[in-house]
Amino acid sequence: MTETPVHPALWPAPVASGAVDATVTVPGSKSVTNRALVLASLAAEPGWLRRPLRSRDTLLMAEALRALGVGIEETVSSSSSVAGGPDASGEAWRVIPAGLHGPATIDVGNAGTVMRFLPPVAALADGPIRFDGDPRSYERPLNGVIDALRALGARIDDDGRGALPLTVHGGGALDGGRVRIDASSSSQFVSALLLSAPRFNQGVEVRHTGATLPSMPHIRMTVDMLRSVGAQVDEPETGGEPNVWRVSPSALLGRDLTVEPDLSNAQPFLAAALITGGKVTIPDWPERTTQPGDQLRRIFTEMGGSCELTERGLVFTGSGSIHGIDVDLSEVGELTPGIAAVAALADSPSTLRGVAHLRLHETDRLAALTKEINELGGDVTETADGLHIRPRRLHGGIFHTYDDHRMATAGSIIGLAVEGVQIENVATTAKTLPDFPRMWTDMLTGAGN
Ligand SMILES: O=C(O)C1=C[C@@H](OP(=O)(O)O)[C@@H](O)[C@H](O)C1
Ligand SMILES: C=C(OP(=O)(O)O)C(=O)O
């Protein structure tokens, strides 16, 4: 038998020696934190974010808003130093809105939320705001936001590809009004326009014209969070016209918001319970949420586990069997890498559908998952809108991540059951879960229980 060579940039994914039994406290939601930062920055009064996610994507968002003039103070507060109940202890960010000004340069990294949500904010600022980011950010679609903002009155210089880099020449205000966009490549186009719309002179009416619209729970999250700061929103799910969202112009309240745990980042830990026939508890799992990760309760139950929402949080238990699944993931695309990893270890084939837009995520996730699982001996094929996964006996090897946090966690899931899997650049998990390697080893050793 040949040994897999060890390389310093490679993280040997730990193998589970038995059934895991752990309680894992998952940091705050990326999607909630970044929406809350934008809404608090556009509000008419200061607000608080408690238990925000501190990761590359959210720090880039905070830094960008600061560059436009917003005050964001990071504090480790105790309940006695700030107003607000028992949840007030721990990390809290105070957001102090201010006049938005350029010139400024914004680094979006490879954060979809930053590259899509901030150009509309920049259009409300005065002065030139330049947007730049990682090489991959130049390839991710932004045309829906650029074209819509132009139609609503903004001046933007770009190179005509409908992508970064670009400069928004903010005029201090934006007319707003009606706009048609095709958001089939990213729901974030819709969310981006809605989040800033209360501050547009006429608000906005966004009409989606494409054939499909991914990640509906994330659009629901946008609508819910807008309403919670006092915005008036008409939308399809509460009696409005299909594919049309309207936001009226209004002042926004500064709120005191406690961020829910990131349920999509809970995925690898739940997967560990499923794969090892163990048990994982995630404290503070919300009873009601718009986060797509809540659908893991249904999906991972169909794949062989069972779960119970208790006072201690979500208790997820594996049965020792892992079943394949035939599932449309269009609503929950960001869960695909973790589901594919579990499916590669199942007792029957899987078909994952409805996720063609994943080709435009952090990397082409359909190609990356196919290549990396197959290099470990798997049998995965790409379809027009997803993956067919036929489980095979897998072997060790290098699992490349393509700077994609969810590829790193997917490889780690496989590594639980397969000796010798090495994750290339596990540090890329810093995009949304900087502490992942420690959390993963703690889960396996039972630390933190
Ligand atoms: O609005 C959001 O917070 C997100 C929307 C989704 O984007 P797409 O609709 O581009 O998939 C999701 O995949 C991403 O991780 C976060
Ligand atoms: C698609 C994702 O991120 P982004 O916000 O950069 O689009 C993701 O986190 O899976």
UniProtKB/TrEMBL annotation:
3-phosphoshikimate binds at K30, S31, R35, S186, S187, Q188, S215, E334, H361. Pfam families: EPSP_synthase. PROSITE patterns: EPSP_SYNTHASE_1, EPSP_SYNTHASE_2. Pathway: Metabolic intermediate biosynthesis; chorismate biosynthesis; chorismate from D-erythrose 4-phosphate and phosphoenolpyruvate: step 6/7. It is an enzyme of class 2 (transferase). Keywords: Amino-acid biosynthesis, Aromatic amino acid biosynthesis, Cytoplasm, Transferase. Coiled coil: none annotated. Its EC number is 2.5.1.19. Its main location: cytoplasm. The keyword Amino-acid biosynthesis applies. The active site is at E334. Monomer. This is 3-phosphoshikimate 1-carboxyvinyltransferase.
